[in-house]
Structure formats: structure tokens, C-alpha cells
Amino acid sequence: MTSRYDETYARSLRDPEGFWAEAAEAIDWEKRWDRVFDGSRQPFNRWFPGARVNTCHNALDRHVAAGRGAQTALIYDSPVTGTVRSFSYAELQDLAARFAGALRSRGVRAGDRVVLYMPMIPEAVIAMLACARIGAVHSVVFGGFAANELATRIDDARPKIIVCGSCGIEVNRVIPYKPLLDEAIERASHKPDACIVVQRPEQEAPLVAGRDETWADVMAGADAVDCVPVAATDPLYILYTSGTTGDPKGIVRDNGGHLVVLNWSMHAVYNRTPGEVWWAASDIGWVVGHSYIVYAPLVYGCPSILFEGKPVGTPDAGAYWRLIAEHGVSAMFTAPTAFRAIKREDPDAARLADYDISCFDTLFLAGERTDPDTLAWAERHLERPVYDHWWQTESGWPMGANCAGLGALPVKPGSPTKPVPGYRIEVVDEAGEQVPRGEIGAIVVKQPLPPGFTPTLWNNDARFEEVYFTRYPGYYVTGDAGVLDEDGYLWIMSRTDDIINVAGHRLSTGAMEEVLAAHQDVAECAVVGVADALKGQLPLGFVVLKAGVNRPPDEIVAELVRMVRESIGPVAAFKQAAVVDRLPKTRSGKILRSTMAKIADGETVKTPATIDDPAILGEIADAIRPLGYGNGAPAGD
Ligand code: COA
Ligand code: AMP
């Protein structure tokens, strides 16, 4: 098939309003838009102003109304509890409508926030849809975050109600969630009116009288309510993501533009046909889960899998193949780290022989760079196309991809292929000038950003403008550095800030440094991301102790590890730190973090011209060698 990518991409940039208005025809609107796009108040874009729409209606009710109520909408597969359960559109509609009724009878109105702190269970999806149904704004907090992170989000979102699971299950460990919620509420200055707890049989949670109710109780007395149309520009959800400080950024998603692009992406990017089973193996706590476990497949009409398990260990490295075969999955989306985990445990993919995966046609990978080895391994064993693609919480849907539905382009291993229609992507130098093709620079997107892209940060227009638009006026700064090559392919090389990517999870080293700096014995610290064969990157800490501290360094490091786990959460995967006498700095006092990361990665390091004292690099190399880093990588030119 000849690819329609070039003409589609060109048209999306030439006539964005016409392009997206056409895509918007696939959505059920209560009232159509007055204008397709309003960019009069830059950098804040508004797509489809004047339109009224309901996301839950488009995800559920319209399928039921069209006679597809009995078709499968969601398949919950949980090897950790031994459960497989399907929900039809009609069942999901009924559950979402009743939970929406429960929220409303507890005072939740359009625009009110509801925080969800939940494992990968159907109630999480139902609660999201129920919020959408009544125009409430959900904010899902990933279960691997600690009470402190949850408290920060509660204070920023100020939810009326919090919905939580009593526990999560990590392979074979039960992780109680409710005590973390109780602690978070204790720490937060904002207090919710009520908490609704899904009591899981693996570990039920004690309830706080007068505040907590069980999911079962609230559902028993709930009346189903209809969808409430909201403005297309009203928020559907807030999803917090790591910024460069300890304060997470509340990414806002609107209703109208989001519906349009997610629906469009299901065919143009992912090449799906309604009815085909789709699986995004992520977590509802991340943007991938919001977009491609919940909203996109439901709106588009593809049965979606909700998997409560891991690529390995639940029970083995054949878990993904089992799900594909058992549920007839046509395409899946996961992070490369999941495939590296499978490859490590089953290098020849021997377990694939146990399953018939003839239903499967394409693997999509994102969340971190797909390294060519993992790409080749997956292609060789699956004998199917494997496509890397690149996006962020801010975008909500792919920014760089091999648009399979427009006719796939040749794959260049290591590149997520080309900019997705709607995104005018440029690579610029320090001065904001485009660099020649093939040269590295900051990846930016020229306004107008397409529909679906975050219109602002929750309650913080100023931070939105400052973080993303002041560096290069008229351009959104992605935070990634990379290359556009002579064929127009994108190469994502690194971050331009202190964000690291651990197992596809976006984490701020700045936030970890704030935790380390709070330790009584620490005078100075730095956290850098170092290469890891499984997770892509891992955080590594460096601490300088206060004068006069003479406790054993191991003891202090163990305390630091515990502090990061308790303050940010296990997801930070902060397990190692080195105690050093001093940190390498420029003469102006800036810590040379990237130089330290290079030493740890075993790269030959050119001594920075601005360094205060070059001898420190040798000290750093010596300090991390016992931790298994930087072997054979002495510093200096
Ligand atoms: N609730 C509570 N704790 C959680 C959690 C959750 N929802 N998710 C992760 N954690 C914990 C883990 O148990 C682990 O804790 P530990 O330090 O006590 O072992 C820690 O957070 C780190 O988790 P994770 O990064 O998932 O590492 P892992 O070693 O458990 O698993 C992989 C590694 C590669 C198998 C796993 O990261 C994975 O499946 N990734 C691919 C899919 C994906 O989630 N992608 C996200 C973006 S698309
Ligand atoms: P998140 O907002 O958590 O989705 O993280 C987004 C960041 O992950 C991006 O800005 C990139 O740094 C990184 N990322 C996501 N997908 C890719 C990819 N395909 N290739 C390289 N980096 C990626």
C-alpha cells in the first residue's frame, strides 16, 4: 500500500481547522462548535469552543443506542487474583451511570474533582467514566506513589471525593493502599468530604467512620443518572506528571479535542477497525492508561483489555502471549522495558510456542526509546511489524509515530518515525534557529498544537506559559532533545531537563534531590539517571555529608533509600547512592550532573572546560565503582 502519510501530514498543517473538523464528524456532539479553533489568547488553545459534548456518552451510551450494547467493551484479566471478566457496553454503561448517581448524591457536580487512587481493577475504569458522565474532573494517582505524593495532588486538585482500592497486588505481594490514603489525607491541608473504598477480598481496609463508605454500599443504593453535556473545552481530567521540581504538574485534558484525536488515532496511527480487540499494557495511573486503556478504545469501539499483572512473574514470561491468544488481541501497546523483561527471562521466546497468536498483527511500543536490540528481538519472534512511537503526558496522544493506518513507512530502528499529522515539529538550537537536518537540538512544536494537547496546567496558567512557551515564543518545548534526519525521521536522544525515564515511568531527579537534601546528615546532593539494561534508566544518588558526621555511610544510604521510597514511592526505584567528599561543579557552582551520569555509564568523559577542579571526576568514578558503575571509565581527557 502506498502511504498516505505525506499528503495527510501536509494537509493537517496547511488547514488544521478543516482537518480536525472533518475528524470531529465521528463524534456525537450535543451541540456543534461555534468555531473549530480559538487561538486568540496565546499560548492557550481552545479547540471546538461553543460545542457541548459528553465523553462517557461517546464511550458507552452511543454504542448501546446503536445496538452494540451486548458487545464486549472491557476485558479484565487479572492473573494476580485468578480473575477474567468481560463487561459489555450495556453493563459498563449501567455501572458507570449508577456510580455517577452515587457521586452526584454525595454532592459531586460538574467541574468538581474526584481523586482516584486505585489498582488495575474495573472499578477504576467505571469511576473514571462515571466522573466523565456528570462532568466531574477525575485525577488518577498511580498506585506506586507514596502518601506524600498523593497528598500533594490532593492539595492541588482539592477533590470533593476520593475513590480508592483497599489494596493493590504486585505479583504476589499485597500492597495496602488505604493506609497510604489515610496518611495522605492526614498530611494534606485539603480534606475530601468522603472516601469510597473498593474492598478487595485480598485485604479489606478499616473504614473511618463518618467519612468512608464501601463501593458495594454506595452502589447498592445508587440511582443511574444520564450523561451531562459539558463544554468541549471543559476539563475531563487532571493527570499529574513530573516536572523539574518536586511539585508535579497538573496536566489538564479537555473533553472535545480529546475525543476527536483519540478516535482519529485509533485508525490513523494504530490501524484498528472497531470490534478488534486492543490491549494497552500500561496502568490507568499513566497517560497511556487514560488514553489507550480507557478512552480511545471505548470511544472507537474496540474491546479493551485491563491487565492486572506484569510481563514476567504473573506467572511467567508467557503472560503476554497467553492474553493475546486467549482474548484474540489484534494489536497491543506497551513499553519496551516490558519486552526487555520478557527477553531476559525467555531469551528465545520459547513460551510463544504454547500459544496461537495468529489473531495478532502489530506491536506498538512507547514510553521510552525502543532500543534496536529489543525491536529486532520482538520482530524476529512475533514475525509482525513492531512500531516505536513517541509522546508525552502533555500531548495525550502520539506526537511521532509510524502511522500504520495511513500506510506504514519503512522502519528505521531507534527512530519513532515521523511527526504525526497535527504536529509541526522542529529541532532548534540555543538561539531558537532550526538546526540543519541530522543535527541535534531541542525538539519543539510550533503552535497551534493539535486538539487533545493539554490546554493548560491545573490552576496554573502562569506555570504553563513559563515552563513550555517562554524559552522559544510560539513554540512548545517538549523537554526532549533529538534529531530530524534528511528523510524527516525523528530521533529522540535525551531530555533537556532533569527528568529520567525508569521502566517507562517519568520521574524527576530534582524531586529525589529534595528528599535527600532533607536528611539531617546531608550537606549537598545530586541524583542522576544511569543506564540500566532492564529499566532503561535508574536513579543514582551522590551525597556529601555535613562536616563532623561520622556515621557509617551504608547506614545513611539505607536511610536515604527508605526516605525516597516513603516520600515519592517504590516507583522511583531509588536503591543506590554514593557518599562522596565533594560534587563536581562548574566555576560558577553548577553541579555537573550529566558528566557524573556519563562516568557512571562507563563513557569516556571529556573534562568540562568550566570545571572547578578536574580531580573530582576521578573521585566520583572511584566512589561508584563498588556499586557496579563506571567500570573502566576513568574521567579526564
Ligand atoms: N502499586 C504499588 N506499587 C507498585 C505499583 C502499583 N501500581 N507499580 C509498581 N509498584 C512498585 C513495584 O512493586 C516495585 O516495588 P519494589 O521496589 O518493592 O520491587 C516498584 O514499584 C517499581 O516498579 P516497576 O518499575 O514496575 O518495576 P518492577 O521491577 O516491579 O517491574 C517491569 C519491571 C519492567 C516488569 C514493569 O515496570 C513493567 O511491566 N513495565 C512495562 C509496562 C508499563 O507499566 N509501562 C508504563 C508506561 S507505558
Ligand atoms: P510521559 O509524559 O510519562 O509519557 O513521558 C514522556 C517522555 O518519555 C518523553 O518526553 C520522552 O522523554 C520519553 N519517551 C516517550 N516515548 C518515547 C519514545 N518512543 N522514544 C524516546 N523517548 C520516549
Written description of the protein model:
There is one protein chain. The chain has 637 residues and is α/β, with parallel strands linked by helices. It has two domains: 399 residues, ANL, N-terminal domain (Rossmann fold); 125 residues, ANL, C-terminal domain (GMP Synthetase, Chain A, domain 3), CATH 3.30.300.30. Helix content is 31%, strand content 24%. The chain has a seven-stranded mixed sheet with strand order 5-4-17-16-18-19-20, with helices on both faces. It has a five-stranded parallel sheet with strand order 7-6-8-11-12, sandwiched between helices. Strands 23-24-25-26 form a four-stranded antiparallel sheet. A hairpin with a 5-residue loop joins β25 and β26. α1 packs across α2 and α3 packs parallel to α10. The site of coenzyme A (COA) has 24 residues, from β9 and α12.
Summarize the structure.
The chain has 637 residues and is of the alpha/beta class.
Radius of gyration: 24 Å
Distance between the termini: 52 Å
- What's the CATH C level of the largest domain? Alpha Beta
Average predicted local confidence, pLDDT? 96
Helical segment count: 18
Integer tally of domains = 2
CATH architecture of the largest domain: 3-Layer(aba) Sandwich
**Which structural class matches the secondary elements?**
alpha/beta
Low-confidence segments: 633-637
CATH superfamily of the largest domain: ANL, N-terminal domain
- Spatially, the strands of the biggest sheet line up as 5-4-17-16-18-19-20
Percent of residues in helices: 25-40%
Major sheet summary line: 7 strands, mixed
Report the bound ligands by name, code or SMILES.
coenzyme A, adenosine monophosphate
Q: How is the CATH topology of the largest domain named?
A: Rossmann fold
Which shape, going by the Cα principal axes? globular
Q: How many beta-strand segments?
A: 31
